Amino acid sequence: MIAGVAMLASCTPVQPPAGSVPDSANIQSPGRPVYMSPPIFPTKAMEHRISGYVDLTFTLQPDGSVADPKVVDEVPANMGFAEAMLRVFPRWKFSPKIVNGVAVAVPAKYRFTFILQ
């Protein structure tokens, strides 16, 4: 934690279209980060004493790596939160999604919250 800065995060799977969900008895939830390279709190947001969050979508690969991250929301916009996350997020690793005992690639959504205390 940077002095006066707290950063929180949560990951949820993106819901596939109706009818395409495999048997839930054979699925373990993905999304627990196992390696995180923390972003740097954006200077602009720190100067203005503003907290915010970034929502990203990505493909969670079978090896737990992040592929094709995209920012879908940044609140508030233009404070540097999205850029800070995109610099480090591709290096993160997650627990993979397991289906019938096999790791598979799945779409996922992740929210990272920047809190200035």
Present the secondary structure layout.
Layout: E1 5-13, E2 27-28, E3 33-35, H1 43-47, E4 52-60, E5 66-75, H2 81-88, E6 93-94, E7 97-99, E8 102-104, E9 106-116
Antiparallel strand pairs: 1-9, 2-7, 3-6, 4-5, 4-9, 7-8
Describe what you observe in this structure:
- The chain is mainly β.
- It contains two helices and nine strands; from the N terminus they run βββαββαββββ.
- Strands 1-9-4-5 form a four-stranded antiparallel beta sheet, with helices on one face. It has a three-stranded antiparallel beta sheet with strand order 2-7-8, with no helix packed on it.
- The termini are close together.
Can I get a quick summary?
The chain is mostly beta strands and 117 residues long. The protein has helices spanning 43-47, 81-88; strands at 5-13, 27-28, 33-35, 52-60, 66-75, 93-94, 97-99, 102-104, 106-116.
Distance between the termini: 11 Å
Low-confidence stretches: 9-29
> Given the helix and strand composition, which structural class is it?
mainly beta
Q: What is the CATH topology classification name?
A: TolA/TonB C-terminal domain
Query: For the residues shown, what is the average pLDDT?
Result: 80
SS field, number of helical segments: 2
Helix content: 10-25%
* CATH superfamily annotation: TonB
DSSP summary, beta strand count: 9
Main sheet makeup = 4 strands, antiparallel
User: In CATH terms, what is the architecture?
Assistant: 2-Layer Sandwich
Strand order of the largest sheet: 1-9-4-5
CATH secondary-structure class: Alpha Beta
Count structural domains.
Answer: 1
The backbone outline, from C-alpha atoms, is elongated
